[in-house]
Structures
1.
Amino acid sequence: MLAGIARFLFVPLAEAVVFAMLASYLLSRTLVPTLAKYWLQRHDPDAPHRARGFLGRLQARFEQGFLRWRDNYRALLERALSSGTRFAVPFLLAMAATAILAFPMGRYLPGLGQDYFPSVDGGQIRLHLRARTGLRIDQTAALCDRVEDTVRSIIPAKELDASSTTSACLTAASI
């Protein structure tokens, strides 16, 4: 029941939501119960110790190593927390040093404060124009043409690759 730009913006969004909900409903009534029946069975707690084949032995060794690592990490955390200030003071000093390096001193140290994507001059000028409310569409188009002519008179033709006036200039009158 929408018209104009609102129709082109919101109808695809509403359709996407409806189709996603339908697909979710169909999957929840068909595939999920079937997979749950096969995957959610009782497990034998001694199964990793009786693992057969190369992959079963590999998984059993991985699980034993992970349990050993987890127990060691837990013991390390318990020692750190029970030591009180012997742990807290170096930890807080490390946090303060990180904060100092991140802000003012970052520009003096190489590699700190750099972006993943450095800022680049793309050689592009983007101009947004808003006409006064109530201006007719043909008057708004004429205004956009005058602005584009002014830009073309300032920028030499050899430096201007392309110029485009979009419908945003025409819809500004209706805002």
2.
Amino acid sequence: MNAPHIYTSSSRMERRTFLRGIGVILALPLLECMRPVFSRASEPQSPRRMLAISNNLGVLPKQFFPETTGPDYELSPYLEDLKMFRNDFTVISGLSHPGVVGGHSTENCFLTAARGPTSSGFRNQISLDQFAAEKLGQPTRFASLNLGVNIVKANRSLSWTRDGVLLPAEDSPSSLFKKMFVQGSAAEVEHRLRQLKERGSILDAVNAETKQFSRRLGGEDRERLDQYFTSVRELEDRLQVAGEWEQRPKPRVEIEPPQDVRDNSLFLDKFRLMLSMAELALTTDSTRIVNVMVDAFATPVFDLGDHTRSTDGYHNLSHHGQAEEKVRQLEKVDHQQMAILRDLLAQLAGIKDGPHRLLDRTMILYGSNMGDANTHDNSNLPILLAGGGFKHGQHLAFDRARNTPLSNLFVTMLQRLGVEVDAFGSSTGTLTGLQAAS
């Protein structure tokens, strides 16, 4: 692993910098002095869940946002597709991430709120799902699931670690099904357990050199290094938990394993299938936190759902310039996505979770980093929150010129999950007007 140059007040360190001990080599994180000269919360008794869905090209804003506000608002053309669940969702206008501008470059910041994605030396920060997973621990087989549709794995993801590292999205429903439900042989399980045990404690192995190295750092770098070591220790804890889960039988489901849709032009079919997998993961309590990123930017000419195809790739289509035919095709695909979302709400509403519907225990965030793809506008993002036990059935409208931070909604969602937190990303508090039903 290559590391940047390292400097201290007294000397320049080598470009390759590691801590070593007892056969273990631990690469260090990026510290200020490496630059060139220029606790878990306890498991809730009645678990809540979160599913975040993002299309990185968004939707047509005029057709999405209602013209009236409050609980008696008139449904917009797109929200008409969801009218049977009117009292189960809230549509929100006037939200965005402060300082998160730059058109398509913001797609990786939807759940992180990291400012300046086009600036030199930009580094992302922890995403909403990973933050929640850290705080809640791992009461399920998977702390979280990060899924993608037509995703470019090396470049795009909704999930990012505390150190700003992209977590690749799983884009194969069949592979996901196997991870969740197919039990390996006894030999395979034993091999996996042996791999986990052989890792031991990395930090214990390099403990002596850690202390010596830390004494040479300034206060800011020492704090950064402590955070890094904390992350490593938490990873080791998660490996221990993973070992425990390896010894437990996986849930049994009476369905056939899904077949992957490999044709990217069938992205609506892929989207529907991946949301079905997300619903299955939540239903079986395989996880309580799921992300799904629709990589519309990477989607070529595609099927519109009525045996017709678009005349251009999704990205080029989104730059419609008010061309009537392009807008018509975008309206058609947006309506299709609303229908897929409606079917997901219906599925969750039809599943009992104790005395509640699973929908009432699951927050579903639908939105995008793009307010208007036609103009590369990253303000007034299309945001809809369904389920989760909130008082819904309203259009919450904030200032469309001076947006409220989207992270305020994230703080409200985290608190609903049971995370004791009063800030996340660029938040200034919780989201005014969104209240719990009970």
3.
Amino acid sequence: MQFAVIETTGLLRNREALPDLRRVLADPASIKIRRAALGAIAMIPDQASPPDYLRFFADKDDGMRAAAAEGLARSRTPPTCRSVRKAFDEERKMSPRLSQAFALVMLGQSEAERAEPSSVTLVNSLE
């Protein structure tokens, strides 16, 4: 139930819930709840949130990295563009990589050719 409430709060962009979401993020019942809390915070653009995103940007959990990248994308904090590019280039998991690509575009880097798989890779995967 807590998971659904947290997700819904983010989808509704309920700013009044940010303090509660940050408390849940600081002391979660489980990793699933922690991911949901950061994901909900990421859906609610707020100038106080970038430290949360930066703290989890290199987390060992790919769901946390993905939520952190989405939060950075929505906060549009330009100083992080270089670190997002580096993370994108090094990321191996699809979910955070997609979120990092979203962040790069939102931060003004729309170099699609660097984000797309090469045609050779695509052809090889189809064979």
4.
Amino acid sequence: MQLPKVEQNVFETILARRSVRSYTPQPVDAGLLRTLLNAAVRAPTAMHKEPWAFVIVQDKQILQKLSDCAKPLFIENIKRSGHSVEAIDSPDFSIFYDANTLVIICAKTNGAFSEVDSWLAAENLMLAACAMGLGTCVIGSALLAIDIPEVKAGLGIPGNYSAVAPIIVGYPRGETPPSPRKVPLIFSMKESST
């Protein structure tokens, strides 16, 4: 595998990664997607099971149908939590923020650590994308729709896999400012007096 040329070290990439919610129409080509998937599968994996599989959606009509299916389910969940749904309820709002690529990381359903491993793969993919000048955002609001048996089958996800991490990928439109983070909360063991 030929490694992409990047200008950042790994720590700079970690600090630069953002959840991007505005994209240009420029498509992400197959070569870049292959590089991202190669980075994803280098993630740590319990007992070397490598339980992940990937679905790539770049068809605008499929993305729109999936957004239209997911929005009412997401809105219902938000209403239950007491949050406002005004912006999301707009007919023009796409849960995929007009990105032209969705990567769904799926996990085998028979492994104790399959979901954990798949989230580790997701982080690798997002960091690699950031280092290559691409934006990403996890779209958890799509999971309820993807889990509908007809939708899952339409996306080609086999029955023994479940969708874990739907991630949009694309070229950011402008800068995404960093969001504030809390300082790490650290718990430590008390020293024994014996």
